[in-house]
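Pasting as-is:
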Amino acid sequence: MSVIAIGVAGWLSSSLLRDLDVEVAGVRFGTYDTIFVAAGVLIAACGTYAWIALRGSDAPAAAERTDAEPKPVDA
């Protein structure tokens, strides 16, 4: 999967974002800055989604059951 991400980043930097030069609030963003910012926003969004989705799942369900005994392993 990371090979695909590297390919997409390379393609974006060499074609669509080739001559990008943007200034936002006094900070200048170029081609690679934009790719890194987009990756950071995507990572933060995924982390926020996981945080919200996993809220309330304090312990695994199997650990809460005390009546379950381990099954013997046949050798």
